[in-house]
C-alpha cells in the first residue's frame, strides 16, 4: 500500500523550514558555523532536499506548485546566508579595529635597535684589513663606459672574455659595470705609482637567480703597483688577508685566466669538506700598464677581486645567497 502526502502537508513543512532556518542563520556566530548550516540546509542531503524528496508522492498537478515554492525558499535562504556572512565580516572587522587601535598619545614603549647587515659588516671588515696594510680606499661609478669596463682592461670588442660577463647595456655606449676592476683604471689615470688601493662596490651581471648567483652583487678590488713586485708579494698578501679574515682554513691557488692579469690564479678555501672559490687574482698584464702610459719594465703590480656575498656566506654559514637580500627579521636578527 503506497503512502500519499497532501499539498498542504508539504507546504506546511516548507514554511516550518523557512522559520527554523531564519532563526538558525541569525544565530550563527562565525563563517565556519554559517557554512555548516548552509550545507545542512541546501546541500544534496540537506533539509530542503529531504522535504522535496516527498514530492514524488504528490499528485502530478501539485508538484509544480511545491517546486516553485521550494525554489523561492532556496533563494530566500541563500540571501539570508549571504547577508549574515557580510554582517559577520563587518562585526569581525570592527572587533579587529577596536582590538588593534593605537593610542597615539600613549608613551612609547621603545624603538627596537637595528642590526648591521652582514654584507655591510663583511665589506667593512675586508676593507679595514687592507687599510691596515697601507692601502687607500677608492671608489668608482656603477654606470661605466665600455672603455673602462672592458677595453682599458685588455678586453677588446671581439674578445671571448666578454661572453663570461653577460652585461646590462644602457644607451649612449654606457653599461652597468660587471666588476670593480674599472676603478683601478680610473685611479691610475689620476695617480702615479706606487699605488695601493682597495675598491669596494656593487656590480651587475645578467645571472639567473639561484642559491649562489644574483644579478646584483658586491665585489672588492685590490690593486698594488710598485717597482719590483712579483707573484710572491701577491701570494703573501692574499694568504695573510685570508688568514686574518677566515682563520686557519686551508687555502690553495689554481692557475686560471683573466684578460687583465698574467699570470692569473683563482684562490679556494676548504669549507664544509670541499674546496670553495673565493677570489681571483694575478699580476697586472703589461698591456694594461702600457695603455695607461706606464713602463712595464719599471712598474709591476698585482690585482685581486673577491665577492663579498661569498665571503659573508662562508663566515656566517649561510646556505643561500638569496637570504642576504630579504628583509626577514628572523634572519637579520642573527647578526
Task: Give an overview of the whole structure.
The protein has 335 residues and is an alpha+beta fold. It folds into two domains: 94 residues; 215 residues, 2-Layer Sandwich (BirA Bifunctional Protein, domain 2), CATH 3.30.930.10. It is built from eleven helices and nine strands. Strands 1-4-5-9-8-7-6 form a seven-stranded mixed beta sheet, with helices on both faces. A two-stranded antiparallel ribbon has the order 2-3. Strand 6 and strand 7 form a beta hairpin. Helix 1 packs parallel to helix 4 and helix 5 packs across helix 10. The chain is elongated and about 115 Å long. The mean pLDDT is 86.
In summary, what is this structure?
With 335 residues, the protein is α+β, with helices and mostly antiparallel strands. The chain contains 11 helices and 9 strands.
